[in-house]
Amino acid sequence: MLFGYARISTPSQKFDLQIDALLKAGVKEKNVYKDVSSGAKANRKSLDLLLSKLREEDVVIVWKMDRIARSVSHMLKLVDQFEQLEVGFRILQEPFIDTTSAHGKFVLTIFSAVAEMERNIIVERTLAGQESARRGGAVIRAK
């Protein structure tokens, strides 16, 4: 069975692009799991529910890698879970990733590292911007 996973970071964002791509890939709407959560969080309600429903020969499909994991360790943990369950994994925007081959696993590891680096760069820029604002007299409050 095909399952899809979509994630947005904030409620002001929309799932439309991801959901449309998953449906075009053959995922039934009832099999699409969605979270509104930071990609840095490994535990997400819908992702955890999806993982609990997977059975041998199922396939998990995501639109982009950073929708399911933003760190190498989290991505590798998910791939390990998929392997143990004998579940396939596809990324629509990176179609050459195939978790059933050694080459595909290698490529997935590299892409996971890039996704983690991108997240770290965003964090660094945010912190630098906040520090600059503080030096300028702004008061930065936590959300």
Helix and strand arrangement:
Elements: E1 2-8, H1 16-24, E2 32-36, H2 45-53, E3 59-62, H3 72-85, E4 88-91, H4 102-135
Parallel strand pairs: 1-2, 1-3, 3-4
Helix pairs in contact: 3-4
Residue-averaged pLDDT: 87
Radius of gyration: 17 Å
Kindly give the count of domains.
1
Distance between the termini: 39 Å
Let me know the CATH homologous superfamily: Resolvase, N-terminal catalytic domain
Reported for the largest beta sheet, the result is:
4 strands, parallel
Total beta strand runs: 4
Q: What is the spatial order of strands in the main beta sheet?
A: 2-1-3-4
The coarse silhouette is globular
Structural class: alpha/beta
Question: Uncertain spans, ≥5 residues at pLDDT below 50?
Answer: none
Secondary-structure element string: EHEHEHEH
Family: Belongs to the site-specific recombinase resolvase family.
Protein name: Resolvase, N terminal domain
Domain Resolvase/invertase-type recombinase catalytic: 1-137
Keywords: DNA integration, DNA invertase, DNA recombination, DNA-binding
Keywords:
143 residues; alpha/beta; Rossmann fold; 4-stranded parallel beta sheet; globular
